[in-house]
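pasting for ref
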Amino acid sequence: MAGLQARAFVRSLQAGCGAPAADRGAVAYDATGLDPATAPRATAQAVLGLSGAPLATLSAHGARPAAPAPACAH
């Protein structure tokens, strides 16, 4: 239960389709909003929590060189 709540909080910090295209998918450091100075580090750290998988089970198997794009209406 706590893990689901934590993931929901991190998702609430993620820039969605309402954000500028260049920011979509990025994760803010805190609830004050997306800051270009902290977003790269916050996003990298959030990936583990958003994956929904235990750290020991993560691998690069099947990884692709480009990040997936959010499915936003154009």
